[in-house]
Amino acid sequence: MTVDVARDGAVAVVTIDRQDALNALDVETLTELRDRLRELGAAEDVRAVVLTGAGEKAFVAGADIRYMSGLDVEQAKGWGALGHDAARLLETMPKPTIAAINGFALGGGCELALGCDIRFASSRAKLGQPEINLGIVPGWGGTQRLARVCGIGVAKELIFTGRTVNAEEALRIGLVTAIADPVLDRALETAHELAGKSRLALSLAKELVNMSPGALDHESQEFGALFSSEDAIEGLTAFAGKRAPKFVGR
Ligand code: CAA
User: Fold this and answer.
1) Is the distance from CB of 133 to CB of 164 less than 8 angstroms?
2) Is 53 near ligand 1, meaning CB less than 6 Å away?
3) 1, 96, 120, 221: most buried, per Cβ within 10 A?
């Protein structure tokens, strides 16, 4: 098995396990990952998803370079689209996704982490987009998402040089929001915290944050519309009543 899905209550933990290649993604592994993410996105009882890599060394060391070296243009376009599908599922599924970056997150590995809503790193993590050193460019969303997460200046420097950053630098440039050991524990703690919040409000918050700044009008509309939900009424009144809210997802 190359992609393991384990359940911890309402949280699903997806572990990419291809340790002899530092969890690099070949077509079988990436297809399996895309399919599992699609299922988890649709599963009502899954409230948060954590993505990590098996073993001590790597989150995902990128797309499998040996596999890529045999691709023609049409095959490479299909390969790019498959990686985009996986990253987009992480970015758009209506529940939070958290990357627990336990080692190398390079190339496509960094891009999958960037598809996640939240990134935490272990102190040993190394992140980067080294594609330039292979004569290619990031192909699974890195040019756009790294710029959105870290700013266009940082993205250009990292993508143009192909340099990798350690956990401390990743934290400084905003590529991850915390360093923790073991990083999976930190990711699970946050995932369980988020699983207890209003599913409705959380999925709308995700959708709105994902929108471009041109969507500010949309934000006020959706913000107002949410006030008709049972969860908003419950959350607002529970605060006034000094009690914990009970959310029902409507
Ligand atoms: N593809 C295929 N195999 C890989 C791999 C990758 N991306 N990364 C590591 N491996 C394999 C190695 O070939 C090696 O296999 P063998 O034992 O059979 O030789 C095994 O994993 C262990 O790796 P190393 O011996 O190289 O381990 P190291 O500790 O010396 O170095 C590393 C670790 C710095 C991560 C190094 O393996 C490396 O540079 N890997 C490539 C990283 C990379 O360039 N990733 C981007 C790929 S391109 C991409 O992802 C395109 C995209 O946008 C979609």
Assistant:
1) no
2) no
3) 120
Return the best residue to mutate from 19, 22, 84 for the ligand 1 pocket (most ligand atoms within 8 A of CB): 22
For residues 214 and 197, is the Cβ–Cβ distance under 8 A?
no
Give the Cα separation of 124 and 102 in Å (integer): 7
- Note the pLDDT tens digit of each residue in 7-43: 999 999 999 999 999 999 999 999 999 999 999 999 9
pTM value? Answer: 0.94
Q: Ligand 1, atom 6: nearest CA belongs to which residue?
A: 64
Give the closest residue to 125 by CA, choosing from 39, 59, 191.
59
Q: Is 132 in the pocket of ligand 1 (CB under 6 A)?
A: no
190: three-class secondary structure by DSSP: helix
Cα(61) to ligand 1 centroid in Å equals: 6
Q: Which residues are catalytic?
A: 111, 131
Nearest CA to ligand 1 atom 15: 21
pLDDT of 211-244, one tens digit each?
A: 877 766 777 778 778 888 999 899 989 988 999 9
